[in-house]
Write a structure and sequence with these properties.
The protein is α/β, with parallel strands linked by helices. Helix content is about 45%, strand content about 15%. The chain has a single domain, classed as NAD(P)-binding Rossmann-like Domain (Rossmann fold, 3-Layer(aba) Sandwich), CATH 3.40.50. This is Nucleoside-diphosphate-sugar epimerase.
Length: about 325
């Protein structure tokens, strides 16, 4: 049986569909609320729109267990008869006030998953990390780019790097693992967080573009890579998952066109971003909700590029064309 933690998140929900559709193994997934389960069901319904008669059969293949990564009794139950684990559960936040929560969920939670995997003699663990756990470089960032502790690191980056240390610790205790480091993940079903916010804001006529660039990847590609790596004999390796290194302005233009919305043209300057996060910090002192942090402001103008050739070489992997990804997600967004 396969266990998927964080089964109601962006990666987890798409992974559950891929696993259910393949029909190879029994599946168990963790969830936190019934509402989040309903979002997964809605995604299954969308993905089977051309075959509506199979949606319930696919969804019923999942055995759900209500558990968090820090709930040891519930996790112990979840691990019964499990042979493979996909650890997708994580907290994503760049707010320094969430540092303790990030440590508790991402680091301690991952340690719990690793420990139970070792105890239950799991065949293999796939951990969903992030490019945030990799180091910085003026050249293309690779799997070997060394992460360094400094004040520029976001609290999220710190937590994902520490989480990876727990996974690598598991390899020293005999656990076989693979780690994937996705860039910004593009996928349908979640428009109030992550890259989904791009679609929501651009649909309303976002006016501004930022000068930075980053690495982007289709959630379908993330899932496919994870499944292939788990089936392969490869162990104790990490893989960057980035299909496209492009500017945010290029991405925003493509999304706006797909949504038939106004293409943003006004460029935000670096000094404006630096001023904006400082003003936001000041407003936060008086109880206003923080919306922009130093790390997110600087990522908005950073010129970052990732080398994903390792996955292409080892698995002959091909990424989905960006236009296809955006058209698919836009179609889903408009259907909502």
């Amino acid at each position: 049986m396969i266990l998927v933690t964080g089964g109601t998140g962006l990666v987890g929900s798409h992974l559950l569909f891929a696993l259910a559709e393949s029909g190879d193994e029994k599946i168990r997934a963790t969830y936190r609320t019934l509402e989040s389960q309903e979002r997964v069901h809605a995604l299954f319904k969308w993905k089977t729109a051309q075959r509506p008669e199979i949606v319930e059969d696919l969804f019923d293949k999942i055995e759900w267990i209500q558990a968090t990564v820090n709930d040891i009794p519930a996790l112990t139950e979840a691990f019964e008869n499990i042979v493979e684990v996909y650890h997708c559960a994580a907290l994503i936040s760049f707010n320094p006030k969430d540092f303790e929560s990030l440590q508790k969920i991402n680091v301690e939670g991952t340690a719990n998953i690793v420990n139970l995997s070792i105890k239950n003699k799991i065949r293999k663990l796939c951990y969903v990390s992030s490019v945030a756990a990799l180091g910085d470089s003026k050249k293309q960032i690779t799997e070997d780019t060394h992460w360094e502790a400094n004040k520029e690191n976001s609290v999220y980056s710190i937590s994902k790097f520490a989480s990876e240390m727990e996974v690598w610790r598991g390899t020293q205790e005999g656990l076989d693992v693979v780690i994937v480091n996705p860039g910004v993940i593009l996928g349908e079903g979640f428009y109030s967080q992550g890259s989904g916010v791009f679609f929501r804001k651009l649909s309303k006529g976002l006016k501004y573009i930022v000068p930075g660039s980053s690495g982007f990847v289709d959630v379908v590609d993330v899932v496919e890579a994870m499944v292939l790596l788990m089936k392969h004999s490869i162990t104790n390796e990490r893989y960057i998952l980035v299909g496209h290194n492009i500017k945010f302005s290029t991405l925003f233009e493509k999304i706006a066109v797909a949504l038939k919305s106004t293409v943003p043209l006004k460029k935000i300057k670096i000094w404006q971003l630096e001023l904006a996060w400082r003003l936001d910090w000041f407003a936060g002192i008086f109880g206003n909700k923080r919306r922009l942090f130093r790390s997110t402001a600087r990522s908005a103008y950073a010129q970052v590029s990732y080398d994903s050739s390792k996955l292409k070489q080892d698995l002959n992997f091909t990424y989905t064309p960006l236009n296809d990804t955006i058209q698919r997600i836009s179609k889903h967004f408009n259907s909502q």
